[in-house]
């Protein structure tokens, strides 16, 4: 019966009767839902969505895809497992770039994978694989804010490289001295999420591309018996991030506090963007408690730092995006300049 119904609707699509096909899919689905035959409803909705997408009717295809999530996956509390993820990912990948219904679809997908009563869900972060796949789609379309949100929450080993690449390409459209602002979007984000390995890898990817693209950029190395850190004299905030990763790796609260003091003047320039995540990092990694004002610290950090468009920019600063910029500095990052006078914090204990 299901196959026959799909065949009839397929004929409507082949004839160009898209509206009739869409309505037929909805009527058939309604019958299955009333009898709680969720498997049949899911087959009709997913097949119909894919057929309509392929026919260029993505508004109708998106409508069926949203119904699949709200009336089957969520209402029937289907578990977040391999079979259900594969089906929903196939539908997700059928959406063309810019299709308006995809935004709602992704929202409902988030509701499904974070709903507490659903088996296999994660009420705080959702499913890593689904976030990763959503992030890759947005990254391929140049949707930076949406891509970084999902790639950060994905936290799969495969998510780090595309996220760092995204941030570096984004940085290349901005002023040279803003490197740390873009590197921080993955480094601080992963640290707030408790993932030191991902933060370290993201920093390595970003700085590797920075060096490859700027052969003349001056660097120094701070070495001790156990540690070695590359320093960019013209980019003090990038140095702060490198040393912050070292402090987290060591679990060294004193080094973290030394860094905050040593780079205080530079950190003031990015306080609007970094204050909240650094406070979270201080608590998560070094036990420095911060006052609680309710809400979810993870989502508060996301809203204030990583993904929100429309944050207030510092006075007098223009930019290609809503990312606040640090105080103006010389445009060049190679050779000798006033920016290259930043001294490495040689007095710090790196062992």
Structure in words:
This protein folds into 2 domains: 1-113, Tetratricopeptide repeat domain (Serine Threonine Protein Phosphatase 5, Tetratricopeptide repeat, Alpha Horseshoe); 173-351, Tetratricopeptide repeat domain (Serine Threonine Protein Phosphatase 5, Tetratricopeptide repeat). It starts with a helix and ends in a 45-residue tail after the last helix. It is built from 16 helices and 2 strands. It has a two-stranded antiparallel sheet. It is an all-alpha fold and 351 residues long. It has helices at 2-14, 18-34, 38-54, 58-74, 82-94, 101-114, 128-140, 144-154, 157-172, 179-192, 196-213, 236-250, 253-262, 264-269, 271-286, 297-306; strands at 220-223, 228-231.
Q: What's the count of strands?
A: 2
**Count of runs of 4 or more consecutive helical residues:** 16
Poorly predicted spans? 307-332, 335-340
Annotated CATH homologous superfamily of the largest domain: Tetratricopeptide repeat domain
Order of helices and strands: HHHHHHHHHHHEEHHHHH
The chain-level mean pLDDT equals 85
What topology, given as strand order, has the largest sheet?
1-2
Helix/strand-derived category reads: mainly alpha
Summarize the structure.
This protein has 351 residues and is mainly alpha-helical. The protein has helices at residues 2-14, 18-34, 38-54, 58-74, 82-94, 101-114, 128-140, 144-154, 157-172, 179-192, 196-213, 236-250, 253-262, 264-269, 271-286, 297-306; strands spanning 220-223, 228-231.
